[in-house]
Design goal:
2 strands, 74 residues, two-stranded parallel ribbon, alpha+beta
């Protein structure tokens, strides 16, 4: 099972922060769309849904921003 890093990424350029996990939403606050994965497809889907006015929840496996550029590999 994946365990997010509990220590910030080391960097001389940026002070990374580990964010706490979001609380589980209540049954009446559930959004109509759940997107699992914050890769290029998940992020694009979330942006297109937001542009169309559809609320969604995007789940990512990490509790901090990525070290370096993710888009450089695509």
């Amino acid at each position: 099972m994946h365990q997010p890093l509990s220590t910030p990424h080391p960097s001389i350029y940026f002070n990374y922060k580990v964010y706490p996990a979001a609380p589980c939403p209540t049954a009446d606050a559930i959004e109509p769309v759940l997107i699992v994965g914050a890769g290029p497809v998940g992020l694009t889907t979330a942006l297109l849904l937001a542009k169309a006015g559809v609320r969604c929840v995007l789940l990512a496996s990490e509790q901090q921003v990525c070290a370096g550029s993710r888009a450089i590999a695509f």
